[in-house]
Amino acid sequence: MKLIKGGSVISPQGIQELDVLVGEEKIEALLAPDSELAKTTAENGNAEIIDASDKYVVPGGIDVHTHMELPFGGTFASDTFETGTRAAAWGGTTTIIDFAVQRTGENVRESLDSWFTKAEGNCAIDYGFHVILGGVDEQALKEMDILVDEGITSFKLFMAYPGVFYSDDGQILRAMQQASSNGALIMMHAENGIAIDVIAEQAAARGQTDPIYHGITRPPKLEGEATYRAIQLALVAGAPVYFVHLSASEALANVAEARSQGHNVFAETCPQYLYLNLEEHLGAKGFAGAGYVCSPPLRTKEETHHGDLWRGLRTNDLSIVSTDHCPFCMKEQKELGLEDFRDIPNGIGGVEHRMDLIYQGVVAGELSLERWVETCSTTPARMFGLYGQKGVIAPGADADIVVYDPKGKTKISVDTHHMNMDYSAWEGFEINGAVETVLSRGKTLIADKKYHGAKGDGKYLKRGLTQYLR
């Protein structure tokens, strides 16, 4: 038994001075600090005391968009389920939902089973899966129904990457119609991949092959257009739609308009789209910009994207912050695109830093403490069928708890991060605040600046349907 004593418990509903009593895996009770039970528990020596004085006590972070071991661009994401989930724990994330990949011509069930094999017995924290549908056909549509019954309740489709993951409008519509009947949530990567490939090919023909052209050839208007088109398909199908890694003002405007009309349209953004930009990062000297190649790309600082996205988080037009954690090393991975930006593996590592980076929004006055918890933990749990078990500090919930020190200081560096990468996209970022203690189902994973967990601590999560429809 553990007693987290003296802290401020943060939830979307507010801030309360409460002690948290943790039993075997679950939260047993929330106690007023001066209550008889709190005093007795603290005094009788039967509970380990975790001193949270002057600190925040928040539900463990839930990152609903990660790609461990993802095959992409002739290589694999450099974090395994073991290294990536351990890094997540260091950063206060206690649950991930990763993507099992089904490609055209592959069986959905067999593809999913291969991802269970990768993760099972290796994860430091609890995990679930979405399924990427790379090939929407009759068999895949039937298997969607089966998987929903088995707790895989969200499916991702791509309007980008022709020849790899791309689905045309007809396939997207059919998948959305299936989701309308079985209750699943369709997740969309919304960029007009057909047009992007034309623009990229033209740029390469002109000799424009540096990393910055990855961003220049994926203009925000093509994210906005795809977002609008996907919303219309969802309305025709009568299905909710969730946009992953939204990066551009144009796309956000379409989401906000649909939401203002009462439609079940949702979106996430990622830390890279709130802080990093095309000119300074993707356009860094030499080949350094390759470390910032992701899709959608970083947007120009000369436009209003950053400010619009922060505002979207405040207004709930952006519901969640995820990472799209898809790490690659510079050496031998990003370097595959030394001669042509189109060959640079797409992805940025960040699963370890999300809670810290979004807390900086609190420090800067962009978000409230309550909204920080809501976007990083509570809404992810509600959106993806985990709420009650995850995303909340309440009796009966899993004891996934982070003690966060607002007076702590953290400096991000490749020399100190725990992700399996040879560089950091966040090198030199100074964080006001620090993760101090992390519990996962009551077990201490992080304390005293040491890792106390073990490979296989994490369990698979069977998820329910989304609880976030309007």
What does this structure look like?
The protein has 470 residues and is of the alpha/beta class. The protein folds into two domains: 2-58 and 393-406 and 433-451, Urease, subunit C, domain 1 (Roll); 60-383, Metal-dependent hydrolases (TIM Barrel, Alpha-Beta Barrel). Helix content is 32%, strand content 23%. The chain contains 14 helices and 21 strands. The protein has an eight-stranded parallel beta sheet. The protein has a seven-stranded mixed beta sheet with strand order 3-2-7-18-19-20-21. Helix 4 (138-149) packs parallel to helix 5 (169-182), helix 5 crosses helix 8 (220-237) and helix 8 (220-237) runs parallel beside helix 9 (249-260). The relative contact order is 0.17.
Judged by helices, strands and strand pairing, the structural class is alpha/beta
At CATH level 3, the topology of the largest domain is TIM Barrel
DSSP strand (E) fraction? 15-25%
Number of strands: 21
Brief account:
The protein is an alpha/beta fold and 470 residues long.
Q: What layout of secondary structure does this protein have?
A:
Elements: E1 2-5, E2 8-11, E3 14-17, E4 19-22, E5 27-31, H1 36-43, E6 48-51, E7 56-59, E8 61-66, E9 71-72, E10 75-76, H2 81-90, E11 93-102, H3 108-119, E12 126-133, H4 138-149, E13 154-158, H5 169-182, E14 185-189, H6 193-205, H7 212-216, H8 220-237, E15 241-243, H9 249-260, E16 265-269, H10 271-275, H11 278-282, H12 305-315, E17 320-321, H13 354-363, H14 369-383, E18 401-411, E19 430-440, E20 443-447, E21 450-451
